[in-house]
Amino acid sequence: MDITTLLPMLADGEFRSGQDLANALGVSRTAVWKQLNKLADLGLELEAVKGRGYRIPGGVDFLSEVDIRGGLTSDASALMNDLLLLNETDSTNAELMRKISVGAVSGLVCTAEQQTAGRGRLGRTWVSPFAGSVYLSLMWEFSQGAAALQGLSLGVGVAVVRALESLGVEGVKLKWPNDILYDGAKLGGVLLEMAGDAAGVCQVVVGVGINVSIPRSVAASIDQSWIDLGGICAGATPRRSTVVAALLNEILPMVAGFESEGFSPLHQAWTDLDAYADQPVVIHSGEKRQRGICRGVDGRGALQLETSTGIQPIFGGEISLRKDT
Fold this sequence. Notes:
alpha+beta
């Protein structure tokens, strides 16, 4: 027996006695207790009350392949080639990058209960507690190389906001080039990785992370201002499978049409969602600092930074954008 065998019995958030758990699993109460002690390693809180037993407050929101597939539109369902639903992986992006090396085709989607080495931009760690957030990646093949993909990460951001709006989550904004914000705090992010020929046929993995219900036990390890859907939705937090389906409904069609349509059809939508529009900002690139006023993005997705010498386009890469205080 391991912890994944025990967790479904506590998923509803109700109390279960140690003896009931032991009887159901055909093991000793000592064996049950040893596994319960591992919950903290997953970032899950365990409550023990004498005479009542054990519970995980709030339960565990497991992903459901049936619910994900059932929540897809006909367009998204037709575009999704396959769905990998993993209990644990180092990173859903890394998982699909490995699949590319063995011949994965467009429309392969991967999501997981937990990432052990989740990644954000600039090599940052993406905190990925068990069943606490959405970790979602999809792979798509493009034929015209990297030049045809300018602005793709921004287009994904627009699709993410539209997906959240379809779930009743209003007020989400975008920060160039890949952050999903709510009231100035980070709700999620986008990470794109590419394999293949930068000038020809290439495969792009689109990764999206959305904070859904971050346990208090792991909150202290997040090194920036953050928020989750639980903090936004006031007791009506959408289930993670519902969020995954909503994201795929928006992202899959957008990615499928991007090579032919580009960023241009999404330009105004991104501009309307720009969290830093007309704000003084600082661009950090290594040891270099550049100040200016954020004037949105151009049709290629390049940030338009107004300085004393005029408007300068800033492209993505090893760059960080912050408000100038």
